Give the backbone structure.
Amino acid sequence: MAKPLNIGMIGYGFMGRAHSNAYRKVNHFFDLEHEPVLKAVCARDAAKAQAFADKWGYESIETDWRKLIARPDIDAVDICTPNNLHRDIALAAAAAGKMILCEKPLAMNVAEGEEMTAAVEKAGVPNIVWYNYRRVPAVTLAKKLIEEGRLGRIFHYRAVFLQDWTISTDLPQGGTALWRLDAAAAGSGVTGDLLAHCIDTALWLNGSISTVSAMTETFIKERKHTLTGKVEPVKIDDACAFLARFDNGSLATFESTRYARGHKALYTFEINGEKASIQWDLHDLHRLNYFDHGDESKLRGWRSIHVTDHGGGHPYMDKWWVPGLQIGYEHSFVHQVADFLEGVAKGQPVGPTFRDALETQKVCDAVLSSAQSGSWVKV
Ligand SMILES: NC(=O)c1ccc[n+]([C@@H]2O[C@H](COP(=O)([O-])OP(=O)(O)OC[C@H]3O[C@@H](n4cnc5c(N)ncnc54)[C@H](O)[C@@H]3O)[C@@H](O)[C@H]2O)c1
């Protein structure tokens, strides 16, 4: 019998569902020492929290996150709230000695992130941030190929994350679901929301970024605020593009926008090395495109690897179905829970920890600062 590990989750929106699904599934597919127990879900509206608890099988509800953290029957706090609450919840959870699983971006800015990182490290509690794309098997395979030296020296890293859901001028800002357009709740726009994912993957695959040069734009300057009812200035970045230099000498371009008509969540990256190149696309997430210059010339070309094989070659896939059958977006969260629980059992940190996510935060802050000053900024 696996040992229970009691989860207290705060927020039950998009990520609340993705995480709850992962907690429920993980022990059916992975052999682990611990089993997450859905102990309590916290949200401000008791009726809605209860409805969510009934649907997903949470044993109890709270309407005040401080009460949830104070409960002795909660082992781990899962932060699924808008970004402006991450810091306060994480500091309180660390002080209470709870393990913390925090949604990304870690914080509103580097200062908050540093405080949070210091707090979890002082408390010595297991901590992780939900940069889940690292655990899409094709992305994990990319990491493996790079570590094996198959790409050789890396010259270029190219990433985009494109959406189109904020083009309408009628869309309000603030409040439920639209907190992403409100700088007071989100911290930034596409930089912290979407580019943070691209940056986390990039730092993981290609090492540290040393300098950045960025431009941002807010296309719609004023929107009605749902909470105040008034038309207010929009203070988030609607779009951001930046150039970066990595410590390993490679050059990078990153672009994100919510104004790319036709694109809903197009996250792609490409890495060009001396010996080989890699391409990945979230819309086709179970495939990794790979070009190996070492192939015999008459057969040389881009190959599309269907990352579904067993036998240790394709990460995580032996836990799921038979070779050839693919998995999806939600499985990256299951993998993250499995790895986190394995780390807890071994007493070892599992990335991305708060400290890892702080590095992403530093790049985000440097990007926003560069966009404001119009000059290159050191990370
Ligand atoms: N890892 C990913 O790919 C990914 C994807 C989406 C969102 N996120 C991150 O997850 C977090 C939540 O985003 P979401 O899309 O789930 O948002 P959402 O709007 O769907 O849900 C937010 C939840 O927080 C709750 N909440 C707000 N204030 C609260 C309070 N004071 N006390 C308790 N609950 C409160 C809301 O009621 C809601 O249930 C954000 O930090 C976001 O950046 C990560």
